[in-house]
């Protein structure tokens, strides 16, 4: 039996509509194009601005506050990106090149000074060949904010490092963006299935959620480590992330916003209205507690009267993690990870 | 008396247990798709010993109490031991024809399993790596005799593995010597690692009665030697898991070629960085002289030429878990996504999805 074209067309259209209306594929595409890729692009943009500000400062055209503001913006974009860091940036040890945390033995300060003692003025080549400890924002932060460094009088010593780090960061984010582009880039892997990485939109969505949930777990660590949760309750203020710039809580807020951006897109897929309400409430609750912190984390963890407030924030993060890792994953029928989290 | 296939064929009817496996000759072969054996979970967290034909048809999924890790298949009877994962006190002897649980093999007092065991080629003995909790971390090789009449494994002594925290073991080509990966990590009956700053991993070759033939180490003492495979010429490839600082990049594969010292397998720094300091399962394709390895934390699957170390396959694969030789290539399971098949021939990588269920596969599989 021959099928006429006018009979085939509606069938093809129906198939096309069915394919396009797969809600999980739609959400994965939205996440990719509206959340994940833009977050990488904004991070790259902030690195470009950091380089401009650093060169301006080192040329004597900008004051240190302009440099600090550029640093804060970069740190903010980096923190926002972490729950969205699926693919290239999460691979190949790249993230260590951006931030060195936790710095258990004050390695950033020691290695920066050792590097500058060995190679002054520092060349870009020497920095590229050095440890990740000195290539990223943590080393940049040390130079700009640490009391031991007088940047005003020691610009000749430290500026080559600051400029080198800013260049390294811009090159790194540029490389990562290039790995998102092209016919085999991450954008295609997250939007056209099956592909070399994912068999289906479900798998890609599972991987996005796994990245996001892992990042929420890292937020717990970023709070819990300085609180002393891994140190028999004895506070470790200098283990706080970004303690020198007193930006720890700001980083946590930015990362929570990144995680929430994933949730906002995923929400429509959830069958249980009750679960949606509870996860919405968990984000709101955690966000409020973070915004209400009265002082930088490095200070708060040293004040006994603040412990209950910090513990309450930690509990909120823990609740958010559990809701997503257990209940959300179950509701969506999506697997969050098995051997990668607990192999042998 | 050594239990051999010939003996079984001759005496089968006289032995109750073997007679019970009477269909075994018919069960093997018959043009079936290869049977893949692996431990698996379900999304409720329950544990299973599973058998799936590679074409996707389920042979069995037997629920068990403890999560298992590797599978020791009997050389010619349709049975296999699914070995409890560290620090399991149980392993499970399974009838491969229907998944029937023949025996819950309970660990000896003050011992637990490490997830790996092997049957001797003659079929009478099984050897399992175990922890001596009287002296935590001291590795022992538990010896179990297969009771032919009752098809039960009976513990009959142990010998040291000459190292701490033994993990995978495999037969050398002589079929009498074993290579054991002593991971070097001390645990005390839980999953907590208690000696990460004083680890002592080693690669040991010993005979199955306990005599030490060789013991070698690698440069990085925090590189836990975990998994291995042996080629027909005796070349041993091992995979390590690094317990040192998270930002460091250290060798994660090593090789011991016949008559040569144990040393890093030459893998490039960028590949090492992609592994996220963790390797899982290793398989060697004897005919093609290829070695495959999964890196579930780095979501990466690799195949190299065993002799030249040339990279043949280097692809992303989410939470890739077990790997085994199938036909011209390798079947690979995943803890998170669909299972895949990869082969490399004449400069080309061929890959397709397998019709197996996706996700929840543990880190090892056996095919045959």
UniProtKB/TrEMBL annotation, chain A:
It comes from the Bacteria. The keyword Signal applies. Residues 37-322 form the Imelysin-like domain. Keywords: Signal. The keyword Signal applies. GO terms for cellular component: cell envelope. Residues 1-20 form the signal peptide. It holds the Pfam family Peptidase_M75. This is Imelysin-like domain-containing protein.
């Amino acid at each position: 039996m021959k099928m006429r074209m006018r009979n085939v067309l509606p069938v093809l259209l129906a198939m096309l509509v069915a394919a396009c209306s797969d809600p999980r594929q739609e959400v994965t595409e939205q996440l990719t194009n509206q959340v994940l890729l833009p977050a990488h692009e904004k991070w790259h943009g902030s690195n470009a601005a950091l380089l401009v500000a650093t060169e301006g400062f080192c040329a004597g055209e900008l004051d240190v506050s302009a440099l600090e503001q550029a640093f804060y913006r970069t740190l903010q974009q980096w923190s926002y990106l972490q729950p969205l860091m699926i693919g290239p940036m999460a691979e190949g040890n790249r993230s260590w090149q951006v931030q060195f945390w936790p710095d258990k033995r004050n390695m950033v300060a020691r290695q920066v000074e050792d590097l500058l003692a060995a190679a002054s003025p520092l060349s870009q080549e020497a920095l590229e060949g050095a440890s990740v400890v000195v290539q990223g924002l943590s080393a940049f932060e040390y130079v700009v904010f640490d009391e031991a460094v007088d940047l005003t009088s020691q610009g000749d010593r430290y500026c080559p490092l600051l400029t080198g780090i800013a260049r390294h960061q811009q090159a790194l984010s540029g490389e990562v963006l290039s790995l998102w582009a092209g016919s085999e880039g991450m954008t295609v892997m997250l939007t056209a299935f099956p592909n070399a990485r994912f068999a289906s939109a479900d798998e890609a969505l599972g991987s996005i959620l796994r990245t996001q949930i892992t990042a929420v777990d890292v937020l717990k660590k970023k709070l819990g480590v300085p609180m002393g949760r891994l140190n028999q309750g004895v506070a470790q203020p200098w283990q706080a992330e970004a303690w020198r710039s007193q930006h720890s809580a700001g980083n946590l807020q930015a990362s929570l916003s990144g995680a929430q951006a994933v949730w906002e897109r995923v929400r429509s897929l959830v069958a249980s209205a009750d679960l949606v309400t509870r996860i919405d409430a968990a984000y709101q609750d955690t966000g409020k507690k973070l915004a209400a912190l009265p002082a930088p984390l490095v200070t708060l963890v040293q004040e006994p009267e603040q412990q209950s407030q910090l513990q309450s924030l930690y509990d909120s993060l823990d609740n958010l993690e559990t809701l997503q890792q257990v209940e959300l994953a179950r509701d969506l029928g999506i697997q969050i990870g098995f051997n990668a989290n607990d192999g042998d | 008396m050594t239990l051999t296939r010939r003996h079984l064929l001759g005496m089968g009817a006289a032995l109750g247990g073997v007679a019970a496996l009477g269909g075994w000759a018919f069960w093997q072969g018959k043009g079936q798709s290869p049977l893949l054996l692996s431990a698996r979970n379900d999304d409720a967290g329950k544990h299973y010993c599973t058998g799936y034909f590679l074409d996707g048809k389920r042979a069995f999924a037997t629920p068990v109490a403890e999560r298992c890790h590797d599978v020791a298949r009997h050389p010619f009877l349709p049975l296999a031991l699914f070995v409890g994962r560290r620090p399991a006190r149980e392993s499970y002897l399974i009838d491969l024809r229907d998944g029937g649980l023949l025996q819950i093999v309970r660990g000896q007092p003050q011992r637990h399993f490490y997830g790996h065991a092997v049957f001797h080629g003659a079929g009478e003995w099984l050897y399992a790596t175990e922890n001596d909790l009287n002296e935590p971390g001291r590795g022992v090789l538990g010896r179990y005799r297969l009771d032919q009449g009752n098809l039960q494994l009976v513990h009959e002594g142990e010998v040291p593995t000459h190292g701490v925290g033994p993990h995978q073991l495999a037969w050398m080509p002589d079929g009498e010597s074993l290579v054991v990966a002593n991971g070097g990590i001390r645990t005390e009956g839980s999953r907590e690692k208690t000696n990460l700053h004083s680890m002592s991993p080693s690669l040991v070759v010993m005979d199955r009665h306990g005599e030490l033939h060789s013991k070698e180490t690698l440069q990085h003492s925090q590189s836990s030697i975990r998994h291995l495979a042996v080629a027909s010429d005796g070349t041993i490839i091992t995979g390590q898991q690094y317990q040192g600082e998270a930002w460091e990049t250290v060798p994660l594969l090593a090789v011991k070629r016949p008559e040569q010292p144990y040393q890093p397998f030459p893998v490039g720094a960028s590949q090492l960085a992609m592994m996220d300091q963790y390797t899982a399962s290793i398989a060697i394709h004897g005919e093609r002289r290829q070695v495959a390895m999964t890196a579930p934390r780095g979501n990466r699957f690799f195949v190299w030429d065993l002799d030249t170390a040339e990279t043949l396959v280097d692809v992303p694969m989410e939470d890739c878990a077990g790997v085994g030789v199938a036909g011209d290539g390798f079947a690979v399971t995943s803890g998170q996504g669909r299972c895949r098949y990869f082969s490399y021939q004449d400069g080309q990588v061929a890959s397709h999805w397998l019709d197996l269920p996706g996700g929840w596969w543990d880190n090892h599989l056996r095919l045959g």
